[in-house]
Amino acid sequence: MSSTPRAAFKRLFDETGTVDQVGIEERVAKFQTRSIKKKSKLWGLTTAVSMVDLTTLEGKDTPGKVASLCQKARRPSDDPEVPQVAAVCIYPSMVKHARKWLSDTPIRIASVATGFPSGQSPIRLRLAEVKQAVSDGADEVDMVINRGAFLAGEFQSVQDEIAAVVEACGDATLKVILEVAELESYDKIRAASFIAMRVIREGDFIKTSTGKASGSATLGNTQVMLEAIRDFYMETGTAIGMKPAGGIKTAKQALHYLVAVKETLGDAWLNSSRYRFGASSLLNDLLRQIEKEKTGAYQAPYYFTESAESY
Q1: Considering the chain, what percentage of its residues have pLDDT values greater than 70?
Q2: What is the model's pTM?
Q3: pLDDT classification of 118: cutoffs 50, 70, 90
Q4: From 53, 131, 207, 285, the catalytic residue
Q5: What is the C-alpha to C-alpha distance for residues 310 and 64, in angstroms, rounded to an integer?
Q6: Which of these is catalytic: 65, 72, 131, 142?
Q7: Is 14 a catalytic residue?
C-alpha cells in the first residue's frame, strides 16, 4: 500500500477509532458459551425466522424458482406459531415476479443492486439498476460498496456513491454491503461501517457481505460492526440496522448472533426492522430446531423443503 492510502487510513482511524482484536475474539467466544433455557431458546429460534431474508442469487434463477421461494417465505412451516420471514432477497430482474406473490403480505422484497457482487460497474449503471429495482417494486435495496476505491483510500468517493444510492432508493430501505472478507482488518471493517453510517438514514442497514466471498459473516466481523453501530448511535442518536450474510447455516449459529445483538445493542435491535439474517439454508434448520423444542423429536432435513412446489 502506498504512503497516500496509508496516510488516508491513519486519518480515518483517528476519526473512527481502532479495534482491540483480542478483546473482540474474547467477547465472541463468550457469546458462544451462553446457556439458553428452553423457553428463551424457542423464542430466539422463532424470532430468528422472522429476521430471515430468504435469498436466491444464482445465475439459474427463474420466475418459477422465485415463486417457490415466495411461497416458502409466506408459509415457512405448517406450524401456525411460526412467523413469516422478513424478506426475500433476489436479483433486480426477479423483483416484478416476486411482487406478484407477495403484494398482499408484509414480507419485504429486497433486491441486490449496484453491480452486485463486485460493485465495479460505472456509477450511472449502478444507480439506474437501483431505480429500476425500486420502480419494479423492491422495498429494499442491498448495495455493494466499491471495495477497490475504499482500499485505495478514496473514502469521499465511496461515501458519495453511497449517498447517491440513498437518493436513488427514494423510500426504499438501503442495506450497504461492506464485503468484509476483502477489507483486510477489523480496523478497516469498523472504518467502512462509519463511512456508510454517516450518509445512510435511520432504519437503513449495514451488511457484512454478498455471500459470494468466503469467511465474511464471522461472529468476530459481525461484532466489530455491531460495536460500530452502538458507538454511532451513542454519538448521533441514529439507529442503524445490521445484516450478517454468508455462511450462517445453523440455528445454533443464529442464536449466538442474537446473543451478540442483545448484549451489544440491547432488545431494541431484536426485531426485523433492525436486524436480519441473509440466508438460504438457515431457515430449514431453524424450523427443525423449533420442531425439536416443541416435540422432542428431530425431523429429517428433507421434511422442510427448500421451497414450496415449483409454480
Answers
A1: 95
A2: 0.93
A3: confident
A4: 207
A5: 6
A6: 142
A7: no
How high is the pLDDT of residue 62? 96
CB 172 within 8 A of CB 141: yes
| Residue whose C-alpha cell reads 419494479 in the numeric block | 136
Q: What is the pLDDT of residue 306?
A: 54
The CA distance from 130 to 112, in Å, is: 8
* Residue 172 structural domain: 3-297
Strand intervals (E) in 153-229: 173-177, 205-207
- Does some domain include residue 53? yes
Cis peptide bond N-terminal to 301, omega within 30: no
Active site residue 267: no
Residue 131 lies in a domain: yes
144-174 per-position pLDDT tens digit: 999 999 999 999 999 999 999 999 999 999 9
**Per the domain annotation, does 302 fall within a domain?**
no
Q: Give the largest CA-CA distance in the chain.
A: 61
Question: For the domain that residue 219 is a member of, what is the CATH number?
Answer: 3.20.20.70
Annotation says 188 is catalytic: no
For the chain, list the strands marked E by DSSP: 52-55, 87-90, 108-113, 140-144, 173-177, 205-207, 241-243, 277-279
**Domain assignment present for 134:** yes
Q: What's the number of domains the chain is made of?
A: 1
| Residue 1 scores a pLDDT above 50 | no
Task: Pick the catalytic residue from 131, 175, 188, 243.
Answer: 243
